[in-house]
Amino acid sequence: xxxxxxxxxxxxxxxxxxxxxxxxxxxxxxxxxxxxxxxxxxxxxxxxxxxxxxxxxxxxxxxxxxxxxxxxxxxxxxxxxxxxxxxxxxxxxxxxxxxxxxxxxxxxxxxxxxxxxxxxxxxxxxxxxxxxxxxxxxxxxxxxxxxxxxxxxxxxxxxxxxxxxxxxxxxxxxxxxxxxxxxxxxxxxxxxxxxxxxxxxxxxxxxxxxxxxxxxxxxxxxxxxxxxxxxxxxxxxxxxxxxxxxxxxxxxxxxxxxxxxxxxxxxxxxxxxxxxxxxxxxxxxxxxxxxxxxxxxxxxxxxxxxxxxxxxxxxxxxxxxxxxxxxxxxxxxxxxxxxxx
Length: 341
Known about the structure:
The chain is α/β, with parallel strands linked by helices. It has a single domain, classed as Aldolase class I (TIM Barrel). The chain contains eleven helices and 13 strands. The strands form three sheets. The chain has an eight-stranded parallel barrel with strand order 3-4-7-8-9-10-12-13, surrounded by four helices. A three-stranded antiparallel β-sheet has the order 5-6-11. Strands 1-2 form a two-stranded antiparallel ribbon. The longest helix has 22 residues, at 191-212.
């Protein structure tokens, strides 16, 4: 425990009096100011538990999930908290505002969030400026998607544009086809669409590897709302097309675990504690299908070190946190890293 850990509940209580998106932006700006003053490191304690995955050396097994820092503006601030790796985005080729507000809702008693942000970001060019400005030298994942108004039959073009842009700056690239907040995006998980996307991106990866003289791993981020046939199809196509890993999972459209809550009927993806069990079961099934041929990053509902350990037991090699970090604070990073040491 660091000096600031006992005070996080007080800070959270103050932030939770604000609109969730306003609180999110305020917290990130405050953290960035602390980092500039060389104080952000006091909020966390780094755990050294090195491991090698994708041929990359991770400081520890606990990463920041994409979505918290969509534009790559807070990489150094997040790194100071003790994450073993950082993932930022999702970035799209062109800037877009996302969905109308309000678009983020707290389910505090369930330690959960519902969001329908919709890939709000400043676009690829601004994203790359921020990424190149960061001093962080650890493992950095860059998460790519498509613009909301790009027809699904041309979605692959957006992913290729983004892959070409982020490739020289990424430790690994995440292909996000699983956000529920961009109309039609999850249709890319269907076998025919997915085959075209993965094969095209694999060919592009090989070209870029030759150009930059380095191979940047490609990782596929999938949804928790999949039946067994879909899981088998996605796992097979991921392996057949030479992708390097899977992230399981994104947020869920299901509301079974929060039925009756005043925000339960809000459109968007549910994250946090209620996501843990369903996302872990999907992770477990993917692990059965890929049989250790590629690593899986487990994300979804991790609220404790014990939860992180259960993700590993289900077949994950690394884990990521987002909503748990909002509810528990920087102490959760250390707790999870120690549990996986």
